[in-house]
Amino acid sequence: AYKALSGQIWALEKRLEDYHFEYVKLKRKVNLLEAELDDLNECVDREAVVDLIYEIVPLLIGKKDKALSESSEDSDSDEIIEESIVHRYQVREKKDVPYKQ
User: Fold this and answer.
1) 7, exposed or middle or buried, with CB in 10 Å at 0-12, 13-18, 19+?
2) Which residue stretches, if any, does this entry annotate as coiled coil (predicted)?
C-alpha cells in the first residue's frame, strides 16, 4: 500500500511541476505581450485619431453628395466609378493610423 501511495504522490508531484513550468512560460508570454501593447499604445494619439475622423467624415459625405449631383447632371457612369475607386484608395491611406485600445 505504501509503495502504491508513494508512486501516486510522485506522479502528482511531477504533474504539479509540469503545470508550474507551463504557468511560468505563459506568465512570461503574457508579460511580453503586455509590454508590447504598452509600446503600441504609446505610438497612438487618440486625439489625433478623433481629429482625423472628424476631418475625413465630412469630406466623404461631400464627395458622395458631389458624385450624386454629378451623376444626375451627367449620365457618364465611368467618371463616377473612377472617382469612387480613387475615393476608396484615399480612405485606405488614411486608415493606416494605428488604433489605441
Assistant:
1) exposed
2) 16-43
Same domain, yes or no, for 30 and 55? no
61 and 79 share one domain? yes
**Predicted TM-score (pTM) above 0.85:** no
Q: Can you give the pLDDT at residue 91?
A: 43
Instruction: Give me the residues of the chain with pLDDT under 70, please.
Output: 70-101
Angle, nearest 10°, between helix axes 77-94 and 46-73? Answer: 180
> Which amino acid type is present at position 91?
V
Cβ–Cβ < 8 Å for 63, 87: yes
Same domain, 49 and 38: no
- Per-residue pLDDT, 76: 53
